Amino acid sequence: MKAYVHSLWRRAGGRAALLSVALCGMALLAGCGAATNAGLSAGPAAPNSQHSPVYGPAQPSNSNASGAGVSTAANGSSGSGTTADQLSPQYLIKSLNVGMAVKDTRATADDLSSWIAATDPKAQSAGATYSQDADQYAVSLNFQVEASIYPQIKSYLAGYADHHKGKLLNLQESVQDVTGAYVDAQSRLANLRAEQGRLQTLMSQAKSISDILTIEQRLTDVEGQIEQLEAQLNQLNGQTTFYTIQIQLTPLSTYVPPITQPWNPGVIFHEALSSAQAFGEGLLTLAIWLGVYAVYIIPFGVIVWLIVRFWRRRNAPAAAPAAAGAVQPPTPGA
Which residues fall within 8 angstroms of residue 119, CB to CB, at 6 or more apart? Predict the structure, then answer.
């Protein structure tokens, strides 16, 4: 009996120990889960809005080697993972043609030249061209302005005539996208410079005269291509950094606005009658010319007719015997 009680006690103690271990394990797992949930609910620390980058259209810079006409576009909302490397530059060449009718063209030319020079100190002027008609002058101005200031100058010129009692005749802007040509030239230039470095290394290591001459010839060719690409890039840089503006000033006193006439059946009938009369005169003129040249046309036609007739008679006897000698097919039932 004592042994049986001892056995039960041992079994109860073992179960209690197992139960204690299980409870400890569950408590440990619960603690880890709570810590994990707390960390997830807290999330990553929100970045300071003062230091978070914002990407948008890049403002051109005068010192930018790639040209001030480079514009950058960013698509997508904040938090989409857009980085500066994903922004693609765009290289544009713009030109503006403005026509105005003003009271005093020479005073207006001086005023516009002074304002553009003050607005854009780096603007370049190709001078002014004056053409005189009696006591009036028509003036043509040409400028090269910075791409960053170009929109301001364009807006000013668009409203200048209205604010100075003139008339804006035309405002035409042409835009050319040279991004593909610029990027292609940069890529080819990088490849050629890499090849130039390899050729210079081979030149320093070459020992035979033939190898030296071959490498030198190829190196000269590569250097020539590099110079051409550099000149092309410099030209594109200039065209995308400075935009062209042409201004034509016409005296307001000589400007005649276009007159639009309403639809008039009488005018249309008169034009149709004039056209029919001109067509009849053309036919009559042709008949007169043919009648005059008939002294040459009729004899020439008679000669051609006689030659054709003689040719037909000459070939007729040869065709007749051939037709007579032809074998007739037997008639059915013969």
Answer: 149, 152, 153, 156
Q: Decide yes or no: CATH 3.30.70 for domain 87-177.
A: yes
What is the per-residue pLDDT across 293-321, written as a single tens digit (0 to 9) for each?
888 889 988 899 989 988 888 887 655 55
CB 144 within 8 A of CB 128: no
Rounded CA gap, 313 and 184, in Å?
Answer: 77
Mean residue pLDDT across the chain: 76
Contacts of 106 (CB under 8 A, 6+ apart): 130, 137, 139
**What is the residue extent of each domain of the chain?**
87-177, 180-242
In one-letter notation, the amino acid at residue 165 is K
Q: What is the pLDDT of residues 221-241, one digit of tens each?
A: 999 999 999 999 999 999 999
- Interatomic CA distance for residues 112 and 141, integer angstroms: 9
E-only strand ranges, the chain: 70-73, 88-102, 124-133, 136-146, 167-177, 242-251
Q: Per residue in 238-258, pLDDT tens?
A: 999 999 999 999 998 776 666
CA gap 100, 167 in Å, rounded: 6
Decide: 123 and 143 in contact? Cβ < 8 Å: yes
Residues ≥6 apart with Cβ < 8 Å to 162: 168
Q: What angle do CA 290, 294, 297 make, to 5 degrees?
A: 105
